[in-house]
Amino acid sequence: MSQYVLEFAGLMAVFAVVIVAPGADFAVVVRQCVVHGRRAAIATSVGIGSSLLFHIGYTIVGLGLIVSQSLLALAVLKWAGAAYLVYLGIRSWREAPPLPTDVATDDHSHPGGASLLRSFALGFATNALNPKPVLFFLSLFSALVSHHTPVAVQAVYGLLMAAALIAWFVAVSFFFTAPSVRARFVAWGRWINRITGAAFVGLGIRLAVSRAAD
Fold first, then answer.
1. Rounded mean pLDDT of the chain?
2. 183 within 8 A of 34, measured Cβ to Cβ
3. Is residue 143 part of a domain?
4. CA 141, 51, 123, 40: dihedral to nearest 10 degrees?
5. Would residue 117 count as lying in a domain?
6. Per-residue pLDDT tens for 87-132?
7. Domain that holds residue 118
8. How many domains does the chain divide into?
9. Cβ neighbours, 10 Å, residue 188
């Protein structure tokens, strides 16, 4: 049992650094906080964590190795992810900014508000269409998890890592939806849409021009 605890501690030591680094997931959650409120942001966070289980699941069963060795599969995944991020950016530019009256509520009641299911799907798709986790979890598990570790134990690792990721983004959701914090962002609503839109487009272009092995 102690060897599994040490093994998991090694995984989390690396993973903890990765989850706090700003990226597409972080940008999506922050924008959900500002535009759609706390409930939508939390649903998006759960979607991201569920997508992480998806990545870890196929890594454990060995599909990650197959995908990582297929240039065509990685290329398709990369371009799909890039296109999706650019789509999110364009949608951010076109979407109406939140109103000051929305600050007092956890989520918007006007027609532009995101449903929890759509918010979950947004988080899941943003993470699932990123090819980086394919190589990241494959290399992470290959380097730190013994071949003798039972699949059931590895599955527990994955569940705990997903829980940690969800907890992090839920904390982010609570911070950015605090009335005083969100009020400042809402006051700059149109610029928030422009900035986050530019961030998504930039991340999409960066992903499109990057090499699969980067």
1. 78
2. no
3. yes
4. -110
5. yes
6. 777 877 776 655 554 554 555 444 444 589 999 999 999 888 877 7
7. 2-11+23-209
8. 1
9. 13
